[in-house]
Structures
1.
Amino acid sequence: MPSSNQSNDLRIGIDVGGTNTDAVVLNAQDHVVAWTKQPTTDDVTGGMRAALAAVLEGIDDPSRVGRVMLGTTAATNAIVERRRLGKVAVIRIGAPATTAVPPLTAWPDDLREAISAGELLARGGYLIDGRRIAPTDIDEIRRFLESVAGKADAVAVTGVFSPVVHDEERKVGELVREVLGDSVALSLSHEIGQIGLLERENSTVLNAALHGVARDVTGALSQVLSERGMQPATFFAQNDGTLMAMEYASRYPVLTIGSGPANSIRGAAVLSGVEDAIVADVGGTTTDFGVLIKGLPRESTAPVRIGGVATNFRMPDVISIGLGGGTLVSEDGERVGPQSVGHRLGASALIFGGSVPTLSDAGVHAGRASFGSSPIGVDYAERLARGLAVADAMFGDAVDVMSLGKAERPLVVVGGGAFLVPDSVPGASAVIRPDHADVANAVGAAIALASGRWDAIVPDGLGRRDAIERACDMAKQRAVQAGADPNAVEIVELVEIPLSYLSEPAIRVNVKAAGPLSWI
Amino acid sequence: MPDSSTRLREITIADLPALARGCAVLGTGGGGEVESGTLIALSALAQHGPVRLVTLDELPDDGLVLPLGGIGAPTVGHEMIHGIHEVYLMREAMEEALGATAVAVMSSEIGGGNGVVPVALAAQLGLPLVDGDEMGRAFPEVQMVSTNIAGLPIEIIGLVDVIGNVTILRPTDWEWAETISRMVSVAGGSYALMADNVISAKRMRGAIIEGTVSQAIRIGRVTEGAADPLAALVGELGAAKLITGKVVEVERRTGGGFVRGSVVIDGLGEDANRIVRLEIQNENLVAFEDGVVLASVPDLITVVDMHTAGAIATELVRYGQRVSVLAWACDPLWRTPKGLEVVGPRAFGYDLDFVPVEEAARAFI
């Protein structure tokens, strides 16, 4: 076990992407001490091993590394590519209610085939006020479990209104253990998501299907660390830009699904040293905008589809516009994009001797950067200037939409096309261009916050205060489970939504707690 | 109404996305979300096949029409979904109480999710769906239906909850119908299937708003692949474009069981330097500019994305969205003195005389 001495001052962030595995070493002041970019390998382990070896060369003593944080798109890729997914026995408890939309309705056929080991819609579940829809049909569930024995790698259990009352899902969870033993993975929906039956059920089933993928990735990390004789504390980056302890991540792999954009938003912020900012990642074809509030990415309120399935994961609020380095400028200069020359920029753009006017040409022509090999013909001057003005207005509009009317935040720009963004953007107080921006994802993984969230419906009026306090306690408890220091965890977000058309006035509360990682 | 030779005769799975988009537009910001309703319809059509679309004229005089819709709390609808048993129990209870046979299902409210779900209910019962409804849009209360304005008394209401409890009401008037139905729905988990005023096809004739199912599908279709979806939608609706601009203020508060609030839109392009404020109670009810009404309930006011022309529900409107506010005329029934008494601005607490949108917003048509 690592001790809490002064020598554990370094941490490593690793980002395993589909193409590259990046790693960085950060010191206690969040400065990048070493960094590398290595190709991702099929077994994940190889790329991780190479990346770790490369960054460790940049520091004198590996034992100074107290923590290793991993960001990965492995779960997302597994779903999108329908690879390495576990077979899941899907149980919904709620009949006779909800039978009009059986489990996995509207799933793409191939994903359903890859995942489902059978589906059951059993009698049981709750109404919004905690009364029963029907008694839980334990016998029916037991028979179903016996029928999937040997076929299912995991079981997903979703009870109607389980975010309000959890007991029934827990009871069914115990039955799963009794019938199928400890070898199957178990996902209970109230631990995964909020009110919203179908989205929560989908998320729970995906979570159950991802246990194997999570095991592979955690196994790979443990292996490369032990090969080096290192025993740091290990964490996974999750969707909201915070961390979860390895053990927690292996139970909730689905929570890593949005960690890619979250890490790049976090990383851009860490590199620029600001806590509240708008972040723009300018690529070749698109620019993604996100918002950082008190050090965490702002979450989206819109439902998220993953692999063709509607879910209610808490994802970063990101908008994407069709502007990047390869974006085409129209004949009259009045329209830019969304078409792009993409990765052919080096052959097609005017500055590289090509014949296609792009935003990169416009940026270079306007003196925002100087690169390329060919001069730009004078005929193009007016068209490029006009196109750049249109692009500037589009950047400004996107920043304005993300700012929600608050103009005092700076804009942090990263990515290969960052030079396209002018030094002054309406709606942003300043434009910041940090160093090491191309490993922002790995930097974003190497952060030191853990969080927990709780969602509940509470009575408005007498008892409201106690109920909200209980919800706050649950969120804090979750944050501590994820690795936060119990003495420093605090409530960072509390949203109260009044509900209409109910007998008794009620409020839905959504609480998020976060805190620095506890020293081990 | 389109003539019968070109009229849509049946609804298939392929029609559902267009129907859902159209119902969202007719929902005027409320009426409940259409997504789960679309899944319900998808499951039912996959199992039972397409649903025949008919006019009231095609139905036998003494056959019962079941005007169906959900009653409850929108928040509950995010978690709770109908059970397939509900509509069978409803038919059985109504046929037994009235001693007649059900011959068709009708949507009681075309706006929002309630416009989509009846497709599934008709498919389940193997009955046709009436091409029409009792609102032509979305309204929040039971008495706000065309059959009330047409002078039909409220004789019977059926409520079936997800558990399977069946309630038959014989209310004394439409206001009691709203009060008791609301209480019954709450008792069953704030989510129930409701049939309001089940009567014969003969008595229903002239008391509904016809053609609204095919209208919803047309509205959904017109924006599909259109070069300018907004212009296409405006043309289809014959709508006034009250303003195109940016949402700069969203305020929500609750009171009396409703989500109330206002949205302020700051004009862009041609509409630069104009500001329009929308007043909301579940649905978009009044549009003001400089204190002057541009459109008001019962005329329809819908906020759409200025690029895709997709309707934006009131709870999803947020700062920075680029939107157009469209307003168009309601069914003439709602503009009669009785109609305005039940659903005019004063019925929602606004001390305003109703001015038809084609006069109030003449400049924007």
2.
Amino acid sequence: MDDFTHIINGMDIEGVLNGGDLPVVVDGRFTGEIHAEKVTLGEHGLFVGKLFAAHVEISGQFNGELVCDTLNVGATGKIDGSVKADTLSIDLGAEVMGSIGRAT
Amino acid sequence: MDKAAGNKAVIAGGAHFKGQIKNTRAIEINGTVEADLKADKVTIGADGKFVGAINADLVVISGHYDGNMDAGSIWATATAQIAGKIQYKTLQMDRGAALNCRVVHNWKPEKTAAKKTANADAVADDADPKDDKIANETSKDDQATRDDTNENTVNDAVEDAAPRSLQPDEPSKHDDGDFKLFADWSKQDSTDKNEPARGRRLGIFGFGSRAAKLPDPQG
């Protein structure tokens, strides 16, 4: 997949992003809401707000609310907030603070 | 997923973003964005739609844009559709681009001072309702003209300036530096409001032509 929404490192975005069908990669700073199919939070990424997606990979800093079907937290991932996922995977080294539950 | 590090930011097709974008060097927009943007280089793709203000060094527009754009260099390609207002230092417009906007050239600083004086005169003159009507008549013909602000300034100044300073039989003056010529004219005060139908005299673009004979002061 070459075409995806890429918020690169150094960028500072605030607002509501509706990703459409294509994946969203956040390597910068995003504050607000994301509604997408697949979201990847890169190692240098910082997300504050609400995230609604089907597939989520978190390798960076996440503060806020997360509602998804599939969640994969990488070794560098840090979550602070509430997580609601149907299928969950947390790698060794990740930091998860808050509540974890199922979406349905 | 293959991510090229330090690349340009991309809003993919189908994505919709509304908010603020800061700290961007290069961004490519193939989706819909409602935001104010300050960046170095902005590319609006053919499917892209941008609503909001853009302040950038280089803007390449192949899609829709609506808002106030202040850029150094603007390139509107064949599929561009622009509404609102664009301010530029250099502009390239490909055949097929649709400009439904106000197009303003950012003059250099020394000319900006003269233009500001002229604009102040034009603004004071336009307060006269008769002038507004005439200005509307000319601008109706000139919807495709690039420099709207320049034109209003020029029209006010030309009434008095033309009989005094320009001889109709000097076509070479029209060829080079038309803009400089009118910039000089616009420095002069325009006091006489009784000149009729300036649109006819000046041709459809408001700049006159070799063939357009300007009338004598007496008749």
